[in-house]
Amino acid sequence: MSGEAEFRRIAADIRRRIQAGEWAPGQALPSRAAMGSEYHVHEQTIRLAYDLLRRSALLDGQRRRGVYVAHPPAMRTLTDVDAKWPYDSETTDTRPHAATDELAGRLDVPVGILLQHETVECLEPGGRSAMLVTSWWRRRRRPHTSVTAELGVVPLTEEQAHALGLLVDSLAYRVMRTRLDPHGAPVETADLILPLDRWTIRLS
Hints:
Arc Repressor Mutant, subunit A; Chorismate lyase; 32% strand; two-stranded antiparallel ribbon; seven-stranded antiparallel beta sheet; alpha+beta
């Protein structure tokens, strides 16, 4: 098994053990050396597993001072898919994309036509990623007067998981938001990716 696959496997097992109650919130985990002996790996592999779990907010603490199980984060509730994010955000990708079959259908444009695009990482006040918003539109952004939304659940891609500090294939809500002009024609569409462990959805 590759080194990367090994530390991810160990991280998944530690996550399972925490969820089973082996360590409670606020309780310190064993040292990297002790866990390395238990899993029969170098302690550097445990460091990578701990770092991954720290990025996902399951663990807290300083790298050289030990880690402990983090207290559960506050849950947010999404009620307005078009609301402005109230905290900091970072635009992480603005490369144009050719319209896939799905995007062409959502925007009512020909398949393959070049679309403008951006991915925005919405951050909590403490700096942790809360959700990802990826938007597509044609030519320039235009005003909208109404919004439609469709809710589903999807596994995270590797890129999404890395941004959100979660394991690949973790499940997340996917809200497909489409903005419409006064005539009901789509002017922009977006995927809002919200981790299941950080959000509840209440759309009216």
